[in-house]
Amino acid sequence: MIDLTLIGIGTGSPGHLTRQAIAAMLDSDLILIPDKGEDKADLAFLREALCRQVLPSPPPLARFPMPRRDDAQGYLPGVRDWHDAVACSWLQVLESHRASRPSLLIWGDPSLYDSSLRIARHLSARMALNLRVIPGITAIQALCAAHAIPLNDLGQPVIVTTGRRLRDQGWPSGADRIVVLLDGECSFDRLDPLGVTIWWGAYLGMPQQILHSGPLAQAGPEITRIRARARAAHGWIMDSYLLARP
Q1: Left (φ > 0), alpha (ψ -120 to 50) or beta: where does 239 sit?
Q2: Alpha-carbon distance 29 to 50, whole Å?
Q3: I need a surface site. Which of 51, 74, 143, 178 has the fewest CB within 10 A?
Q4: What whole-number distance in Å separates Cα of residue 242 and Cα of residue 213?
Q5: Sign of the CA dihedral 178, 204, 14, 148?
Q6: Rounded CA gap, 203 and 11, in Å?
Q7: Residue 119's closest CA among 199, 129, 72, 62?
Q8: What is the CB-side half-sphere exposure of residue 209 using CA atoms within 13 A?
Q9: In this predicted model, what pLDDT tens digit does every residue of 40-94 receive, in sequence order?
Q10: The pTM is what?
Protein backbone atom coordinates (compact mmCIF):
# COMPACT_ATOMS: atom_id res chain seq x y z
CA MET A 1 0.00 0.00 0.00
CA ILE A 2 1.34 3.40 -1.02
CA ASP A 3 0.29 6.43 1.05
CA LEU A 4 0.30 9.28 -1.48
CA THR A 5 -0.18 12.85 -0.25
CA LEU A 6 -1.08 15.78 -2.49
CA ILE A 7 0.02 18.97 -0.74
CA GLY A 8 -1.35 22.37 -1.70
CA ILE A 9 1.51 24.87 -1.56
CA GLY A 10 -0.27 28.07 -2.56
CA THR A 11 1.11 30.22 -5.34
CA GLY A 12 4.81 30.07 -4.67
CA SER A 13 5.42 31.92 -1.41
CA PRO A 14 6.77 29.94 1.56
CA GLY A 15 4.34 32.00 3.64
CA HIS A 16 1.46 30.21 1.93
CA LEU A 17 2.42 26.85 3.41
CA THR A 18 0.29 25.73 6.33
CA ARG A 19 1.73 23.87 9.31
CA GLN A 20 -0.21 20.84 8.12
CA ALA A 21 1.52 21.08 4.73
CA ILE A 22 4.99 21.32 6.27
CA ALA A 23 4.26 18.38 8.58
CA ALA A 24 3.11 16.30 5.61
CA MET A 25 6.28 17.18 3.66
CA LEU A 26 8.44 16.13 6.61
CA ASP A 27 6.54 12.86 6.92
CA SER A 28 7.14 11.96 3.26
CA ASP A 29 9.86 9.54 2.28
CA LEU A 30 9.96 10.99 -1.25
CA ILE A 31 8.78 14.26 -2.83
CA LEU A 32 8.04 14.02 -6.54
CA ILE A 33 9.01 17.02 -8.67
CA PRO A 34 7.57 17.28 -12.19
CA ASP A 35 10.12 18.14 -14.86
CA LYS A 36 8.44 20.02 -17.71
CA GLY A 37 11.56 20.59 -19.76
CA GLU A 38 14.15 23.31 -20.09
CA ASP A 39 11.70 26.08 -20.96
CA LYS A 40 9.86 25.57 -17.65
CA ALA A 41 12.82 24.52 -15.51
CA ASP A 42 12.11 27.33 -13.04
CA LEU A 43 8.94 25.54 -11.90
CA ALA A 44 10.97 22.53 -10.74
CA PHE A 45 13.62 24.76 -9.16
CA LEU A 46 10.93 26.68 -7.25
CA ARG A 47 9.53 23.49 -5.72
CA GLU A 48 13.02 22.29 -4.77
CA ALA A 49 13.96 25.68 -3.30
CA LEU A 50 10.73 25.71 -1.31
CA CYS A 51 11.63 22.34 0.25
CA ARG A 52 15.11 23.51 1.17
CA GLN A 53 13.79 26.76 2.63
CA VAL A 54 11.08 25.39 4.92
CA LEU A 55 12.35 21.91 5.82
CA PRO A 56 15.35 21.52 8.12
CA SER A 57 16.12 18.14 6.61
CA PRO A 58 14.04 17.53 3.46
CA PRO A 59 13.30 13.99 2.31
CA PRO A 60 14.72 12.85 -1.04
CA LEU A 61 13.46 14.81 -4.04
CA ALA A 62 12.89 12.96 -7.31
CA ARG A 63 12.15 14.59 -10.64
CA PHE A 64 9.97 12.76 -13.11
CA PRO A 65 9.47 13.63 -16.79
CA MET A 66 6.13 15.30 -17.45
CA PRO A 67 4.57 13.88 -20.62
CA ARG A 68 3.22 16.32 -23.18
CA ARG A 69 -0.48 16.41 -23.96
CA ASP A 70 -1.63 15.51 -27.46
CA ASP A 71 -5.00 17.01 -28.42
CA ALA A 72 -5.04 15.57 -31.94
CA GLN A 73 -8.10 13.45 -31.06
CA GLY A 74 -9.83 16.31 -29.24
CA TYR A 75 -9.31 18.15 -25.96
CA LEU A 76 -11.01 15.79 -23.50
CA PRO A 77 -9.67 12.52 -25.03
CA GLY A 78 -6.24 14.14 -25.12
CA VAL A 79 -6.48 15.07 -21.45
CA ARG A 80 -7.55 11.55 -20.43
CA ASP A 81 -4.66 9.97 -22.33
CA TRP A 82 -2.27 12.53 -20.85
CA HIS A 83 -3.46 11.78 -17.30
CA ASP A 84 -2.79 8.10 -17.90
CA ALA A 85 0.70 8.85 -19.21
CA VAL A 86 1.47 11.02 -16.17
CA ALA A 87 0.27 8.24 -13.86
CA CYS A 88 2.70 5.87 -15.58
CA SER A 89 5.50 8.38 -15.01
CA TRP A 90 4.58 8.59 -11.30
CA LEU A 91 4.56 4.80 -11.07
CA GLN A 92 8.03 4.46 -12.58
CA VAL A 93 9.65 6.89 -10.15
CA LEU A 94 7.81 5.42 -7.14
CA GLU A 95 8.95 1.91 -8.02
CA SER A 96 12.53 2.98 -8.70
CA HIS A 97 12.75 4.71 -5.29
CA ARG A 98 10.64 2.12 -3.45
CA ALA A 99 8.72 4.93 -1.79
CA SER A 100 5.87 4.11 0.58
CA ARG A 101 4.92 7.66 1.70
CA PRO A 102 5.47 9.87 -1.37
CA SER A 103 4.03 13.33 -1.84
CA LEU A 104 3.53 15.86 -4.61
CA LEU A 105 3.58 19.63 -4.16
CA ILE A 106 0.57 21.15 -5.93
CA TRP A 107 0.34 24.81 -6.89
CA GLY A 108 -2.68 26.37 -5.20
CA ASP A 109 -5.06 23.69 -3.96
CA PRO A 110 -5.29 20.13 -5.35
CA SER A 111 -9.08 20.40 -5.70
CA LEU A 112 -9.30 23.47 -7.95
CA TYR A 113 -8.37 23.26 -11.64
CA ASP A 114 -5.56 20.84 -11.02
CA SER A 115 -5.25 17.38 -12.55
CA SER A 116 -3.44 15.56 -9.74
CA LEU A 117 -6.52 14.02 -8.12
CA ARG A 118 -7.66 12.64 -11.47
CA ILE A 119 -4.17 11.34 -12.23
CA ALA A 120 -4.12 9.63 -8.83
CA ARG A 121 -7.26 7.73 -9.86
CA HIS A 122 -5.38 6.43 -12.90
CA LEU A 123 -2.51 5.42 -10.61
CA SER A 124 -4.87 3.60 -8.23
CA ALA A 125 -5.82 1.27 -11.10
CA ARG A 126 -2.19 0.10 -11.17
CA MET A 127 -1.32 -0.16 -7.49
CA ALA A 128 -2.85 -0.18 -4.00
CA LEU A 129 -3.13 3.50 -3.12
CA ASN A 130 -4.23 5.44 -0.06
CA LEU A 131 -4.72 9.10 -1.00
CA ARG A 132 -4.53 12.11 1.33
CA VAL A 133 -5.01 15.76 0.38
CA ILE A 134 -3.62 18.79 2.23
CA PRO A 135 -5.48 21.97 1.18
CA GLY A 136 -3.60 25.05 0.06
CA ILE A 137 -4.18 28.73 -0.66
CA THR A 138 -5.71 29.12 -4.11
CA ALA A 139 -4.78 31.63 -6.79
CA ILE A 140 -8.26 33.11 -6.28
CA GLN A 141 -7.55 33.88 -2.64
CA ALA A 142 -4.09 35.24 -3.45
CA LEU A 143 -5.49 37.42 -6.25
CA CYS A 144 -8.18 39.01 -4.09
CA ALA A 145 -5.75 39.55 -1.22
CA ALA A 146 -3.16 41.16 -3.50
CA HIS A 147 -5.73 43.63 -4.83
CA ALA A 148 -7.45 44.00 -1.41
CA ILE A 149 -10.88 43.30 -2.90
CA PRO A 150 -13.74 40.96 -2.00
CA LEU A 151 -14.36 38.03 -4.30
CA ASN A 152 -18.13 38.50 -4.48
CA ASP A 153 -20.52 41.42 -4.53
CA LEU A 154 -23.09 41.63 -1.72
CA GLY A 155 -25.19 38.47 -1.76
CA GLN A 156 -24.14 37.66 -5.33
CA PRO A 157 -22.64 34.50 -6.88
CA VAL A 158 -19.24 34.15 -8.51
CA ILE A 159 -18.46 31.78 -11.37
CA VAL A 160 -15.01 30.21 -11.67
CA THR A 161 -14.19 29.24 -15.24
CA THR A 162 -11.34 28.79 -17.71
CA GLY A 163 -9.95 30.84 -20.55
CA ARG A 164 -11.02 28.13 -23.01
CA ARG A 165 -14.67 28.33 -21.96
CA LEU A 166 -14.60 32.14 -21.91
CA ARG A 167 -13.30 32.13 -25.50
CA ASP A 168 -15.77 29.50 -26.71
CA GLN A 169 -18.91 30.53 -24.83
CA GLY A 170 -18.47 34.15 -23.76
CA TRP A 171 -19.52 35.57 -20.42
CA PRO A 172 -21.23 32.80 -18.42
CA SER A 173 -24.82 33.38 -17.42
CA GLY A 174 -25.90 33.62 -13.81
CA ALA A 175 -23.21 35.89 -12.37
CA ASP A 176 -21.80 39.37 -12.83
CA ARG A 177 -18.42 38.38 -11.38
CA ILE A 178 -16.23 35.67 -12.88
CA VAL A 179 -12.78 34.37 -12.04
CA VAL A 180 -10.78 33.06 -14.99
CA LEU A 181 -7.99 30.50 -14.59
CA LEU A 182 -5.80 28.62 -17.07
CA ASP A 183 -5.97 31.34 -19.69
CA GLY A 184 -2.91 31.43 -21.91
CA GLU A 185 -4.51 33.62 -24.58
CA CYS A 186 -5.84 36.71 -22.71
CA SER A 187 -9.39 35.64 -23.54
CA PHE A 188 -10.84 38.76 -21.93
CA ASP A 189 -10.09 40.54 -25.23
CA ARG A 190 -13.00 38.62 -26.82
CA LEU A 191 -15.53 40.32 -24.50
CA ASP A 192 -17.44 43.55 -24.90
CA PRO A 193 -15.47 45.69 -22.42
CA LEU A 194 -18.25 48.20 -21.75
CA GLY A 195 -18.67 48.57 -17.99
CA VAL A 196 -16.33 45.62 -17.19
CA THR A 197 -13.55 45.95 -14.59
CA ILE A 198 -10.59 43.55 -14.44
CA TRP A 199 -8.24 42.68 -11.59
CA TRP A 200 -5.29 40.66 -12.92
CA GLY A 201 -2.28 39.12 -11.21
CA ALA A 202 0.70 36.98 -12.19
CA TYR A 203 3.31 35.14 -10.06
CA LEU A 204 1.07 35.82 -7.06
CA GLY A 205 2.94 35.68 -3.76
CA MET A 206 6.34 35.49 -5.46
CA PRO A 207 9.00 38.23 -5.50
CA GLN A 208 8.21 38.87 -9.18
CA GLN A 209 4.47 39.36 -8.54
CA ILE A 210 2.76 41.64 -11.09
CA LEU A 211 -0.64 43.28 -10.62
CA HIS A 212 -2.80 45.40 -12.90
CA SER A 213 -6.43 46.48 -12.74
CA GLY A 214 -8.90 48.95 -14.15
CA PRO A 215 -11.63 49.28 -16.78
CA LEU A 216 -11.21 46.40 -19.22
CA ALA A 217 -11.18 48.69 -22.26
CA GLN A 218 -8.00 50.39 -21.02
CA ALA A 219 -6.44 47.74 -18.77
CA GLY A 220 -6.95 44.76 -21.10
CA PRO A 221 -4.45 45.77 -23.83
CA GLU A 222 -1.90 46.78 -21.19
CA ILE A 223 -2.25 43.43 -19.40
CA THR A 224 -1.70 41.65 -22.72
CA ARG A 225 1.56 43.57 -23.22
CA ILE A 226 2.71 43.05 -19.61
CA ARG A 227 1.94 39.34 -19.78
CA ALA A 228 3.87 38.82 -23.01
CA ARG A 229 6.95 40.59 -21.62
CA ALA A 230 6.84 38.61 -18.36
CA ARG A 231 6.45 35.27 -20.11
CA ALA A 232 9.37 36.05 -22.40
CA ALA A 233 11.53 37.08 -19.44
CA HIS A 234 10.78 34.05 -17.24
CA GLY A 235 9.92 31.37 -19.79
CA TRP A 236 6.60 30.65 -18.04
CA ILE A 237 3.74 32.50 -16.36
CA MET A 238 0.93 31.62 -13.99
CA ASP A 239 -1.80 34.25 -13.82
CA SER A 240 -5.48 34.68 -13.07
CA TYR A 241 -8.03 37.47 -13.10
CA LEU A 242 -11.40 38.57 -11.80
CA LEU A 243 -13.90 40.30 -14.07
CA ALA A 244 -16.89 42.29 -12.80
CA ARG A 245 -19.70 44.11 -14.53
CA PRO A 246 -22.50 46.18 -13.03
Answers
A1: beta
A2: 17
A3: 74
A4: 9
A5: negative
A6: 7
A7: 129
A8: 16
A9: 778 888 889 999 999 988 899 999 989 988 888 888 889 999 999 999 999 999 9
A10: 0.88
